[in-house]
Amino acid sequence: MLSKPYLKQIFIYPIKSLDGISLKQATILESGALKHDREFALLDQEGKFINAKRYAKIHRLRTSFESDLNLVSLRIEGTEKAVMFHLEQGRVALEAWLSAYFNCPVKLQQNTLTGFPDDLQANGPTIISTATLETLAAWFPNITVEEMRRRLRANLEIDGVPAFWEDQLFAETGETVQFKIGDILIEGVNPCQRCIVPTRDSVTGEQTPNFQKVFVSKRQEFFPSWATPSRFNHYYRVSVNTKIPASETGKILHQGDKISID
Fold it and tell me: Do residue 104 and residue 176 come from a single domain?
């Protein structure tokens, strides 16, 4: 399998479940997470996440951030008016605006140490390849590569490789695969199990008919020889969950960094 993998794109999602932003570089926290990724989360009155799994209307929220990530702009899809809030000084007003939108009490929580990852055991950046996104999009006539990218919400996108190249970055249960992006040591843990979120349009929240059925069928059909079959109790899995050792704290990922597997 000839390839020259490199880090093409870096994405973080400052507020869990809302729009992400593209970065030229990202710093590794002591926890192994990327700095500012999923640093904030929206919680309901029961302390549960307000996310796209539970609240489909979250898809219709458009967010953007100022360069220092302290100011967030919110806009409802289909409207032109945007409102801006400071994430610290304007938090009460932001929570009130979100509570009105979701029609339930909303609290904004912050965790600067670990963020709010979905996988607590593999809380490093998620990884996918550009070729994988292109292949997945080709399975669905009305889904573009950019739309598939928004639906899957991976942190690190690898180019210079074939589709599903990243499936070699995990091994049997209990084992990890060590690789480096630049000089940063990363451990691949498992293929990411997908939820209902990728089945919906990332902007409107509308369901794509038969998305999961087509995905599973095609994923099995195109299953690569270098993947570990035992990690696929079902084929609704794509991208790789990782963890990063504390020894890499403070190191910086850069766009264009080369990737090597130990």
Answer: no
- Residue 147 shares a structural domain with residue 168: yes
Q: Are 140 and 217 in contact (CB under 8 A)?
A: no
**One domain, residues 164 and 194:** yes
Are 153 and 182 in the same domain? yes
Q: Rounded to an integer, what is the distance from CA 193 to the centroid of its chain?
A: 12
Computed over every residue of the chain, the mean pLDDT equals: 96
| Parent domain of 153 | 6-34+118-261
Residues 133 and 243 in one domain: yes
d(CA 152, CA 199): 10
Three-point CA angle 138, 139, 142, nearest 5°: 75
- Domain at 177, CATH number: 2.40.33
- What is the 3-state composition of the chain as percent helix, strand, coil, each rounded to the nearest 5? 20, 30, 50
Give residue 72's identity as a one-letter amino acid code.
V
For 94-145, the pLDDT digits (tens) are 999 999 999 999 999 999 999 999 998 899 999 999 999 999 999 999 999 9
Do 53 and 136 lie in a common domain?
no
Considering its fold, how many domains does the chain have in total?
2
2-6, 23-27, 207-211 — which is least confidently predicted?
Answer: 2-6
Rg (CA), the chain: 18
208, burial (CB in 10 Å: exposed 0-12, middle 13-18, buried 19+):
middle
Q: What is the four-CA torsion angle of 82, 9, 11, 260, rounded to 10 degrees?
A: 180
Token couple for 77: 């899809």
Mean pLDDT computed over 168-175: 97
